[in-house]
Design goal:
Layout: H1 2-27, E1 30-37, E2 42-49, E3 54-60, E4 64-70, E5 73-76, H2 80-100, H3 116-136, H4 139-153, E6 158-166, H5 170-181, E7 190-195, E8 203-214, H6 216-227, H7 230-242
Helix pairs in contact: 4-6
Length: 243
């Protein structure tokens, strides 16, 4: 009996630890901070999670930075030296694989590698096909209600700054102002929006700061809400079949 109780106690502790970790992952907030100075052309995005054990930073100014810190490990995605070494390793591995698989038929000239423009064009074609198929299954109408709730929950709690803009065509400026007027959140913050209807040149200037947080629980709930929609399930099935 003592052994059975000990085993049950260990199992209970393990279950509690797993539930605690799961709760931490789902309910600890992911904080984000966006800071943009359009006049100085400086832009930064900071994200941290799990009591700053996971940190992400993007900065664009005189130089660009894209950093991810997980515990004591740091990943610099824009480090040219590391990128060059990774590329050399991939090329060496590819060369070794070619040598192992080499046969008389391999002497044929390889197909020319696609350039960046062709790759981007291919991606755009795929997106267009997917978008057309999504419209056939009424996906926008199915996902929009849940997306509205999600965007409200992750909205920034602090927004401040000054944005001044204008277009050479005053009608375009008016359309932009009308679009912004449909976002009440912008007018419930300290963000000042100053449209310029008299300018003869298109421009935008000022600064913008936003800070907020979200939880992964919100993402999970959004995905569950989408999956419950029959249209979405049928669309996913059709997309997988086409792939």
């Amino acid at each position: 009996m003592f052994i059975v109780l000990s085993v049950c106690k260990i199992i209970g502790i393990v279950v509690l630890v797993v539930l605690a970790l799961l709760a931490a992952l789902l309910f600890l907030p992911v904080s984000y901070e966006i800071d943009a100075d359009i006049d100085q052309q400086r832009y930064s995005v900071k994200v941290h999670w799990l009591l700053r054990l996971v940190r992400f930073r993007f900065f664009y100014g005189e130089k660009a930075e894209l950093l991810l810190n997980i515990l004591f490990f740091r990943f610099d995605f824009l480090d040219q030296e590391k990128r060059r070494k990774r590329k050399e390793k991939k090329e060496k591995k590819a060369a070794k694989r070619k040598k192992k698989k080499k046969n008389p038929e391999d002497d044929q000239e390889p197909e020319p590698e696609k350039g960046p423009f062709q790759k981007v064009l291919g991606i755009l074609r795929t997106v267009a096909r997917t978008g057309g198929r999504a419209l056939e299954y009424d996906i926008p109408d199915a996902i929009w209600p849940g997306l509205q709730v999600f965007l409200f929950r992750i909205r920034p709690r602090q927004v401040r700054g000054t944005l001044e803009f204008g277009f050479s065509d005053p009608a375009t400026t008016g359309q932009i102002v009308g679009g912004l007027a449909m976002i009440p959140l912008l007018y419930q913050t300290d963000l000042r929006i100053l449209p310029d209807f008299e300018t003869e040149q298109t421009y935008i200037s000022g600064n913008f700061y936003a800070k907020g947080h979200m939880m992964l629980f919100h993402v999970v709930m959004l995905l569950i809400r989408w999956i419950r929609q029959k249209n979405v399930r049928v669309f996913i099935g059709a997309a997988r079949s086409a792939a």
